Amino acid sequence: MKNEPFYITTPIYYVNDVPHLGTAYCTIAADVLARFERLLGREVRFLTGTDEHGEKIQEAANKKGLSAQAFTDEISQQFKTTWLKLGITFDDFIRTTEERHKEVVQHYIQKALQKGDIYLGEYEGWYCVPDETFWTQAQLVDEKCPTCGRDVKKIKEENYFFKISRYTEKLLQHIDANPGFILPESKKNEVVSFLKEGVRDISVSRTSFTWGVPFPQTDQTKSQHVMYVWFDALINYISALSPLKSSEMVNKFWGTESQPRAVHLIGKDILRFHAVYWPCLLMSLELPLPKRIFAHGWWTIEGKKMSKSLGNTIEPLSFTQQYGQDAFRLFLFREFPMGHDGDFSLKNFKERVNADLANNLGNLLNRSSGLLIKHLEGAIQPPTGSDPLLTPVTDAVIAAHEYLYAAGSLNDLPMERFEFHECLQKIFPILTALNKFVDSKAPWTLAKDPTKKIELQFVLHSVLEGLRIASLMLWPFIPATSDELLKRLGQIGATECLNGKSELTELTKWGKGRPAQLIQGQPLFMRLE
Ligand code: MSP
Predict the structure, then answer these.
(1) From the alpha carbon of 11, which atom of ligand 1 is closest?
(2) Model confidence over 203-224: pLDDT tens digits?
(3) Which of 19, 166, 268, 514 is deepest in the core (most CB within 10 A)?
């Protein structure tokens, strides 16, 4: 619904690594959804940022011979700059080392302590530093971390524990009552079985290092505790809304129990933290739960796990400098559904760009605009006339329109369920049908016969009308291309929807184009060899 607030978050990224394909995937996906919602007229808040505390970051800083603060300042800036250069339209970038975050973390922990949900104890077991995760002996696989397969270390230290079991039953009920809370379905099932097995109380503080948010001192302990990095990190989703200053942003973007707003997009590896620990902590703090947690799959590169040691990571800035941002953005969601794992291969990337962007879109524009300039002085009009051969095109427009903007309940569109792949599968048939229409109408032949001028107009105007609609629908995925195409066609573009002057759902109907003069330009996409 128009003007309704919409809150989308990415995970905050650890600063021991620089942006890569995996983190870019998640950030771009959030950007696609943020743009989609803004285009519909919603008031969007898009949050991303960096996760800067914990043992792993302290170790990484030590290795580089830098103070933890200097180290995190440098890498956090690198994330921010990369996202800006990639055209990511985030509204806020939070760093967990910022005062505005730390004070909220301390405030909430104090609250949970007062509630009696936190107690002092001793943790003895295994710890995976790269994952910042506690494991029991029984959970290890071949003595290694069960999720990442790396070495774990034995730790024994005084910790504060969170009585998570107080909330797990209530969480199970919530999951059951809210089918779209954890998506995809398979991930929901994982969470449910994890909860049903019974969850042990979890550590929320550490004492064997100091790089963290100081834990509120209690009279039970003499040691200085710092927050366990995951509990510090998760709170970013609310601390960025400045809850201690005023409740305005929280009410608006976090929402209420009956109208939750927050949509957390995460990778499948961090599902348990988001879908179990975070909701339980929120319940303890008597705060509403997020609306949705969506866990996306993982990318491999040319069939191999992406890793620094293999040197096969894709650096998003240099990749997009070479191949273009829109091509990259589209490829990420065109290949497979977001809940699945997928492989990034240069061959598939090039094939996809050539088929969808160079041929289906770019070449269609070239062919039709060339003829329009040559034979009709570049004059664009909404198409008048009819032809049964056009029906597959108008049918494809109607089908895409229905699916994108009306399917499901108004408050839960396929894009909001991260069905990006499925949405693209509805939009691209418009272009395929248009290409078929052009081939069967052969406007280059019509152009040779002066008695066929009206038919030629109808064909070319129809093609440009179809291109106009498809590019508006594609704007969240390929914004620069869409802006350029609509500019050349002299048509209303995203800007007018964003500033409320036009209604996207109206504009994307057949026949809503306006008379204009075509501007010719360079091909939008070159074929990649
Ligand atoms: N700092 C935590 C998140 C805290 S959120 C409160 C963290 N950071 S991370 O930098 O290690 O990972 C961030 C995200 O990158 C995760 O969602 C993870 O799934 C994603 N990816 C890392 N490698 C990936 C792929 N190869 N493919 C897709 N996404 C991947 O975890």
Answers:
(1) 5
(2) 999 998 899 999 988 888 888 8
(3) 19
